Every structure is written in structure tokens, then in C-alpha cells.
């Protein structure tokens, strides 16, 4: 299959491209679409066969449910059973990088929910995503548009790398603004529970719902996560990765990088802008300023993919403290590094 990549200008959206994407989706085909978090691999969320194609194409484990994307709140009511007052309060954050889990309605195919009785719904703020969903007039199932286990794609080139030849169309909307996936919050039970941290942090959500808690698995590595997707190897570059956190991290990475290089190991370094110059002699990418975690989340996945392109054997990366947006970033880095994190 030939994969077409069509670029959309955000300031002047070409309706022909929106229609083309929507028609493919209505026809049961898969289309990669931009969102503000990461690119999604979209399909008609009410079409069982189309959703199965998502699992085949991504090589996604069948027990990992999909998120349905909507383009207005009215679309929600057919898809879920019961919307709590707590959920309604969170509507203030919609459209945006927040996914809410509800009891599912009968309309939802089992493939979407992986056989479970709840469904995840997201109302993205990205204009291109919303126009495609509106034009298709369907809830669009869309996991991140990567092959399972790889870092999520934040631009069309990274989508193409994973999906070339497997889907008919990638809609290129430029770089994803946020760069890490949405916050997933379960509202189907008594206490609202964050299953995956994202741009909206525990601290931010508690300002709206003071009783929000983190899923036990986000606090204790030995607990099985409630969100199936959280238990798999994930966000992983080809190279082995080690993460260091703390005041001495940059010095430590420098010493380690030197010593590995002397052993003939091809090292790649991911550090902050403030320290980047001292790493001249290595393949290196900056996360941006240490004081700008938004920039770090924006560059994290594309930097990991860039390291693979450079062909490094080992990535040495500086991590951040585990709170606010740092928690969401470290949730990804921990998985990318298969738990290899040292606090210095
Ligand atoms: O930002 C995002 O959320 C992106 C963009 C494309 O919208 N999508 C995304 O989808 O990250 P995916 O499939 O890569 O991650 C969805 C996460 C997985 O961890 C999955 O297990 C969890 O949400 N999830 C989906 N439905 C669920 C459900 N009913 N109960 C618990 N967890 C669920
Ligand atoms: Mg994913």
C-alpha cells in the first residue's frame, strides 16, 4: 500500500484534505492524524473491523483498549452510561489533553474496550483533529500512531517511519504541541483516579477535584496498573538507556559518557540546554532549558527517535524530579529506560 502524506496549513485548512481523511475513516480505513499531544492512528470507533486493523497495524496487544476521540461534548452521551458531576467539572478542561474513562454504552464494539465495561473518551483541542472527526461525524478510535513499544510520534515523519506502506494516509499537521500523551483519568468508580499522568498533572486536577488520586501502580512499581497500556514495555528506543536525576546528574553523565566512549561504545547524550556545550564530543540533543518542562515533554519522544537514527548503542539522559509535569515525563522515561534510573 502506498502511504500518502498530506500537509495541512493550520492557518488555512484545506477542506479537501479534511474530507479525504474523513472519507477514508468512514470507509473503514486507517488514517494517522495530528493531535496536540501526539499523532493518533485513527479508525471509525464504531466499526469493529476497522478497530481490529489498528491492533494488527500497530502490533498492539489485544487486551489494551483504545481511546475514542470526539469533536463536541454532545457526541459523548451516546457512547457512555452515566456522566457523574465530577466528570462534568472536568469538562472545563475539554477540549484538551485529558482522557476520561466512563462506563461504556452498548454502541461500543468490544474491540475498542478490549472486552471491558468502560470506555476512554478524549476531546482533542487540535483544530485539524477536530475538523476530521466532525467531517466523519463518528467517534474516532486512535491510539498513538507508533508501532507498539516505540516512542509515540510527534510529527508526520515519525509516523511515516513506523507506518509507511501500512496505511493509506498520514495528515501532516506539523509538530505536536505537547509531545506526551493525554492524562487518563478513570471516572467510572467512586474515587477519580489518574491512570496515566500527562500535561494535566495530579496537582492541577486536584484544584478541580480535591479527591483525585493516583493509581497505585503510579506510586508503587510492584502493583499491576489499571490501565493495560501502562504495563507494557513502551516508549523504547532501540538503544539501551540510562537516566540520571539530581544535582550531580550532568557531571555524572559526562564521566560515564567519556568512559563508555573510551570503551568504543557509541554514546548518545540527552541533557539540558544549560549543559549542552560540554558534551560537544558526543552525539547530543538538548531537552531545552532545565526550567522549562513543557519544552522537555515537547522534545522527549522525538529526541529518542533521533538517537535511534544516529545509531547510538547507549543513551545517557538527565531526568527530572517526580512531581508536577516532571511526574508525567518520568513516567515515560522510566519505561524508555526499562526502569534504569539512578538518583544522585
Ligand atoms: O494523547 C493521547 O491520549 C493519544 C492521542 C492520539 O489522543 N492517544 C494515546 O492512546 O495515547 P494510546 O492507546 O497509546 O494510550 C491509551 C491509554 C493506554 O494506556 C490504555 O491502556 C488506556 O489509555 N486506556 C484506554 N481505554 C481504557 C479503559 N477503558 N480503561 C483503562 N485504561 C484505558
Ligand atoms: Mg501509545
Describe, in plain words, how this protein is organized in 3D.
The protein is an alpha/beta fold. It has two domains: 4-214, DHBP synthase, CATH 3.90.870; 240-343, Threonylcarbamoyl-AMP synthase, C-terminal domain (Rossmann fold, 3-Layer(aba) Sandwich), CATH 3.40.50. It is 31% helix and 20% strand. The chain has eleven helices and 17 strands. It has helices spanning 15-26, 48-58, 85-90, 110-113, 127-136, 156-163, 202-208, 216-219, 249-262, 293-310, 325-336; strands at residues 4-7, 31-33, 40-44, 67-69, 80-81, 98-104, 118-122, 140-141, 169-172, 183-186, 193-196, 213-214, 240-245, 267-271, 283-286, 314-318, 341-343. The strands form two sheets. Strands 1, 2, 3, 4, 5, 6, 7, 8, 9, 10, 11 and 12 form a twelve-stranded mixed beta sheet that branches. A five-stranded parallel beta sheet has the order 15-14-16-13-17, sandwiched between helices. The longest helix has 18 residues, at 293-310. The chain is globular, with a radius of gyration of 20 Å. The model has no long low-confidence stretch (mean pLDDT 96). Threonylcarbamoyladenylate binds next to strand 6, strand 7 and strand 11. Threonylcarbamoyladenylate (TXA) binds next to strand 6, strand 7 and strand 11.
